[in-house]
Amino acid sequence: MTTGTDAASTSELQSKATSTSNPPSPPPEEAVQQLKENAMSSFLSPEIMSFFIAGGCAGAASRTVVSPLERLKIIQQVQPRTSDGQYKGVWRSLVRMWKEEGFKGFMRGNGINCLRIVPYRHGSKELDTPKRLASGALAGITSVCSTYPLDLVRSRLSIATASIALASPTASSSSSSTLTTASSATLLNASSASTSSIPKHAAAVAAAFHTTSPTPNISTANVAGYTKADLTIMGMTLKIMREEGGVRGLYRGLVTTSAGVAPYVGINFAAYEFLRGVITPPGKSGIGRKLSCGALAGTISQTLTYPFDVLRRKMQVAGMKGGSIKYDGALHALRSIIKAEGVVGLYRGLWPNLLKVAPSIATSFFTYELVKDFLLPS
Question: What is the pTM of this model?
Fold first, then answer.
């Protein structure tokens, strides 16, 4: 039997329990601040930061491994068809690059290329196909717009010391006639010329054709009008801003690049989904199969959207010293390339680009898993 005192005590305890389980809601300002703190703590959680760091390390490692092929691709994209001393063939071009510039030539522009990496995070929420396509395209366009100046500077650094000419055929003919006139004058005055003038003539030839000078003390960069300070990230950036219209010069070719993002994302997604059903059926989803699936999807999407990449590189170097070709826009550049080189001109450098897909994906996957396991031991 329950007495009145026991009933009152029971009622008081229930009231306290109810007030404890349902605390009064905080004011709106405090609620907003609490949500912000929770979101920040969730974003800066050890797991998310580990994904962030692992993604950055994977991107930097993959770009460094394929840096020689990436630089060769850029050189082959922008070199005119009629230029002397073209970089032809992958192996021969890599050997030539090593002989002319050594290991620095392989890594030229790789530092700023690593800075362009946008690390990614893994979410637990799955998105349907339209949302994945839209989010991928928007993320790609956003990253391109925010890092485009770095991409342009990377292109300039990659070809600043390459022994190729960036002049049009007309300019090359003009340079050749000038060189012929200079040679005739030299022959007429040969009797009074001293032997010490031979290196100067060698430098004149190198300057006219923008090739590596036969004199070892004359660097290609100096012949091309670039000082040692210009061949740094900051130096090249300031040079572009100083000579090509300020900050606007750093965004040359941005529209063309952005236009190529959405097709690339769509084709890559469609190819990956199709190949995943063929290469990685249920019960056969090993690492090798996944890497093959990603490599093939990347190869297909990059091949079909490769003309956008060529247009981007052509427009990025249009304002460089030593080049007389100027473009009024993407359509003008497209018409000029097709008129001068045909459709084949839109696929220059495709072979080294395809060769770097598989090692890039494999290095990225391996480095990501290695760093993630190191930061988040099971």
Answer: 0.72
